[in-house]
User: What shape does this take?
Amino acid sequence: MRNNFQSLLLVILILTSLLITREAKIKTPIAQQPASFAESVEASSLTSGESASADAKEILPENFPRLNHGSGANLLGNLTITVPQDFLPKNSVPLSQSPTTGEQSSVNYQPSPAVNFKSKIALVSDLDDNTDFIGYNINQRWPLASITKLMTAVLAIEEIGKEKETVVSENAIAAEGDSGKLKAGELRKVEDLIKIMILTSSNDAAAALAEFYAFGLPDFVELMNKKAADLGMSQTVFFDPTGLSPINQSTANDIRKLMKYIALNHPEILDYSREKVFGNLQNINIFAGQSDFLGGKTGYLEEAGENLVSLFSANNRRIIIVVLGSENRFEQTRELFNNYLIQYRNER
Assistant: This one.
């Protein structure tokens, strides 16, 4: 009788334990944010549509907030974009300073009265000695758009090698846009993909390069962030190798650091960007082919407007010009360059 009572008591305890466990699971939020997230993106910026990148789910947790790719109005305000703590390199910008658009520069740069500013951010500087001739919001973060591809090119050279060949995959071709005229299944040299990516801003080429990296796309993007941190680009974060996501953000000051590194270590990237044509492909940069143009990269997103980084030769100096969030990037760059020449003559 005693044994039967003990057995019955044991059964009751087991059933009670199961009921408690079930109740706890029911009360646990299904989409609970992981502890690695610092803060939430504003509810108005979220959408149930496509994620910021076709491969976002491979890079970030599945419940990472998705961004609105509509008018971009939210992104031009004071929106703070959440980035998982373990996504950034340890020595990168603290999460409390995670990229925002609309954040004001910590330094008050006064626009030159001779320049009609039609850009959110502008910089004219000597690349070699960092002498700033014109600086306007140069520490304000902004979506990079396809300027991102400069870092993709750097890592393709350093981590893969220009002479290697890869087969362009269906996944790479599925990237937004069709510039570069790549076809799934064709064999391409890494150097050719870099040229196509720089000249035509091909997202397919950028995706193919990152995909070819031995450890895959997520690790390639992690490497992009680590490289940025190594170069002292403390206000920069990368989310994908194409620049399609507005999470790819930087400042004019950080872009200058990247351009200086490229000019010193991989000048061939700048050489590629100067070519007017590559095969049957036309360079989309109207400065290509100019004798004083040393190289650069275009970028455009609806959330960012028109971006452009350019390097020119003038007065025996290498002059870098960065315009972000521009209404007309080429016109603005010309105006800034001409203003620099006027200022230089006045100084002399």
User: Anything to note?
Assistant: Confidence is low (pLDDT under 50) at residues 18-109. The domain at 119-347 is CATH 3.40.710.10 (Beta-lactamase). The chain has two domains: 1-30, 119-347.
